[in-house]
Structures are given as C-alpha cells and as structure tokens.
Amino acid sequence: MMNNTSDDKDIELDLTHLPHINQAVVDSVISYLENYLLPDQEKQTFVETLFTDYKTDGILGILGVANFLEIPDLITVALEKIQNIMADRSVEEIAKEFGVKDYTPQEVDEARVGARPTANP
C-alpha cells in the first residue's frame, strides 16, 4: 500500500500488484496530476523535468500507474520516453535494457506443448 501525505492531502493507493512501483513513482504521478492544468509551455517544461531522474524501470513504473489510473496523456508521454529509449538500438540492446531474457530450448518446447490444442475424447 502506498501513501502520499502532503499538507492537506492524504492519498492511499493499493498498487502492490504492479511491478516497478515505488513511492517516488507514485509521487511523480501525483505531481503530474497536480500540474496537469498548467499552460502548455509550462506543462511541457514540467513533463520534461518529471522524467529526468528516471531510468527505464522508473518510466515503466510511471506507465504502469498511469495505465492503472487511466491517465491517457501521461501514458502517451511515458510511451514516447520508452520509444526514445528503444530508438536506434539493436534487439539485443533493447532486450538488455528491458531485462528480457531469451528462452531456453526447453522453455520453447514446453510452450509449444502447452499451446497445442487437446483432442476431445
């Protein structure tokens, strides 16, 4: 359970089922929402600074919270940041950046067996 308490606000979200989530990510999403109605130029500057301290895991965390809370504009911004991370990289570099591991031949075989339709007796 994550809590954000500041001045007269007490926000409690149960995000324990979302990976990559920590208090800093939740605070950033709340900050985004607090600054959402800024004029376009100020909002753009704010959004640029919002992501400067985050590496891939943090951006994925923001994306997860934005998706969970259904914040389309923040989802778009987070996806653009992820797109920029992936740009001009090889498949191997992207897999390493996002922690994607290759399947072993045994895992591939198990997946194939599990995907086969069973015959009705």
Automatic annotation (TrEMBL):
Q: Any idea where the SKP1 component dimerisation domain is?
A: 73-112
The coiled-coil regions, if any, are: none
Q: Which InterPro entries match?
A: SKP1-like_dim_sf, SKP1/BTB/POZ_sf, Skp1_comp_dimer
Which Pfam families does this chain map to? Skp1
Q: Which Gene Ontology terms describe the biological processes this protein takes part in?
A: ubiquitin-dependent protein catabolic process
Pathway given in the UniProt record:
Protein modification; protein ubiquitination
Name under which the protein is recorded: SKP1 component dimerisation domain-containing protein
What organism, scientifically named, is this protein from? Thalictrum thalictroides (Rue-anemone)
Recall the taxonomic lineage recorded for the source organism. Eukaryota, Viridiplantae, Streptophyta, Embryophyta, Tracheophyta
